Amino acid sequence: xxxxxLAQTLGAVRLLTxxxxxxxxxxxxxxxxxxxxxFDAASADTSVRAVLLTGAGRGFCAGADLMQDLGxxxxxxxxxxxxxxxxxxxxxxxxxxxxxxxxxxxxxAGAGMNLALAGDIIIAARSASFTQAFIRxxxxxxxxxxxxxxxxxxxxxxxxxxMLGETMTAAQAEAAGLVWKxxxxxxxxxxxxxxxxxxxxxxxxxxxxxxxxxxxxxHNGLDAQLELECDLQRDLGNTHDFEEGVRAFLEKRxxxxxxxxxx
Length: 263
Ligand code: LHQ
Known about the structure:
Blueprint: E1 5-10, E2 13-18, H1 29-44, E3 50-55, E4 59-61, H2 78-95, E5 100-104, E6 107-109, H3 111-117, E7 121-125, E8 129-131, H4 145-153, H5 155-164, E9 167-169, H6 170-176, E10 181-183, H7 188-200, H8 204-217, H9 222-237, H10 240-250
């Protein structure tokens, strides 16, 4: 893996840092390929229990790299790059059976914002901002934007944000329900790692089941969702983690939980 994407293992957390700070971590084919590979690797590595995604420098991600061969003089088939890179990446992030924390350290624009929304828990630095910049260049949201946005902040806000292309401050994003929590800039990297580390210590099979259920709730009706919860909970009832969780509760001590598929 090249250093366009930094991948570090910190305990059971895989920290992925988009690393093109001079371009606000804009997504080019090399970075998109590295991201796709990094999520494959995080999926395969049983010692990884949570992924933390952030950006180097003052930006999180400025979306597609507009300096690349895109637009009037380049490849006009934008669908090609969406099919090759963006859609597989978003699908991979959603399907990953481990939680992803999107730590939005600065501006998140266009597909860069939507990449953050593909995570499970979205946190942001107080100085971060969010913009569906697509309309400014005659495009529409991609990378899952028209799916994630209305579900997170409601249809009215989602349409206005996409159509007007205005920037949302971190405080507005928190108030709208786009992000879970804000942290002061100075402590943001530490706090982000703490969130991911806490997640990584929780029962992995329960987290994976939750992720599956929340993903499904976007398209299931109540009956299907109740059945899915029942099936998943039945499986969780047979795990060592459930046994340990209840024992730890009764013994008034913190539980020690196993990783996915192992001890
Ligand atoms: C950039 C970029 C950038 C390259 C800042 N590329 N260099 C599209 C096409 C194909 C297929 C798939 O899907 C997509 C989806 C998309 O993502 S379309 C949306 C693409 N993104 C944008 O339209 C956002 C463009 N950037 C901006 O509007 C601003 O840079 C934001 C609001 C992100 C930040 O503004 P500032 O904080 O004022 O920073 P800046 O504009 O001065 O940028 C700093 C540098 O980063 C600058 O380079 P320079 O050499 O002048 O210092 C920018 O050119 C560069 N940069 N975004 N997307």
